Amino acid sequence: MFWLRLVPDDTKIQFMRGRILGLATSAFLSIASVILFFHPGLNYGVDFKGGITFQITTPQPADFSVLRSDIDDLGFGQAQLQQFGSPNDVLVRMEAQPTDQLQQKAYETIKQTLIDKVPGVVVGASDSVGGTVSGELFTNGMLALGLALVAMLFYIWFRFEWQFGVGAVVTMILDVTKMVGIYVVSGFEFNLTSIAALLTVLGYSVNDKVVVYDRVRENLRLYKAMPLRQLIDLSINQTLNRTIGTSLATFLACLPLAIWSGEALQQFAVVILIGVVVATTSSIFIAAPILLFLGEDKLFRKKAPPAAPADGKPASKGA
């Protein structure tokens, strides 16, 4: 049976040699992302800054590019269109206008324009999303992210030791800040779908870190005399084939969505693609170095000798 191995079994890359550079680069990107979050800030969607939504039904399957062009040309801000039910049903979301009167005027203008340009179209009643509701949605979304981080901390802490839990959660916080920076730089609309994307990246990130940490824990029992730095390198190399294979499979599965899907799903897929890369690299260059710094003198009962076996074989019972 043919089995494709992306990484040879005898790979011995010394990842921990780049631990300082990896942590410094991650810290720089995360700090830059936090600064970008405050200025210029995220491009909040209707869900988080308010606006109007309404449904339209076209006599033929909707042409999103034409509809979006017709609405955007009116100058009321960028419209977000999403298929809603059948190919003929479209959900339109518009940015909030300065006053309620202008918001109602924008809806009436858009409605009349669509009726004139798309014969047979049916425009449903508008539904406004106020600032209070959108603020609550944003708060609840951030709360969901925070609770997810806390739940993951307790899960990893319970399964491993506190050094593993702290390392994983700190890494995931850095991952999330980088993803927020991606939203700012790309100009993608930040809405409830974005929260779902961030939670998806968090889930993938913690899964990847558990794989590496689980191998570290197994090797801690096998190689009691091996220095922690060498043991972590060994563990990463042993799981590298699975890590790259899983990441590549996820990446290829999302790639068609990022290229050929609609605008809303396309942005979601692009964020997932970037998140897979960020989560995979952070497991190696951030989570592992943090574990090394936190557990250097705490994860071993027996102090390692000056020279450890380089072939990765378990130490003898008399060692």
From TrEMBL:
Subunit field text: Forms a complex with SecD. Part of the essential Sec protein translocation apparatus which comprises SecA, SecYEG and auxiliary proteins SecDF-YajC and YidC.
Lineage: Bacteria, Pseudomonadati, Pseudomonadota, Alphaproteobacteria, Rhodospirillales
Residue ranges of domain Protein export membrane protein SecD/SecF C-terminal in the record: 121-296
Segments traversing the membrane: 20-39, 137-157, 190-207, 244-262, 268-294
Gene3D superfamilies linked: Multidrug efflux transporter AcrB transmembrane domain (1.20.1640.10)
Membrane protein topology class: Multi-pass membrane protein
Any single GO BP term: protein transport by the Sec complex
Species per Swiss-Prot/TrEMBL record: Inquilinus limosus
Family statement drawn from the similarity comment of this UniProt entry: Belongs to the SecD/SecF family. SecF subfamily.
Alphabetically ordered keywords of this record: Cell membrane, Membrane, Protein transport, Translocation, Transmembrane, Transmembrane helix, Transport
UniProt-annotated location(s): Cell membrane
Any Pfam family: SecD_SecF_C
Protein name per UniProt: Protein-export membrane protein SecF
SUPFAM superfamilies: Multidrug efflux transporter AcrB transmembrane domain
Role: Part of the Sec protein translocase complex. Interacts with the SecYEG preprotein conducting channel. SecDF uses the proton motive force (PMF) to complete protein translocation after the ATP-dependent function of SecA.
InterPro entries: SecD/SecF_arch_bac, SecD/SecF_bac, SecD/SecF_CS, SecD_SecF_C, SecD_SecF_C_bact, SecF_bac
GO molecular function: protein-transporting ATPase activity
Name of the gene this protein is made from: secF
CC annotations in GO: plasma membrane
Secreted among keywords: no
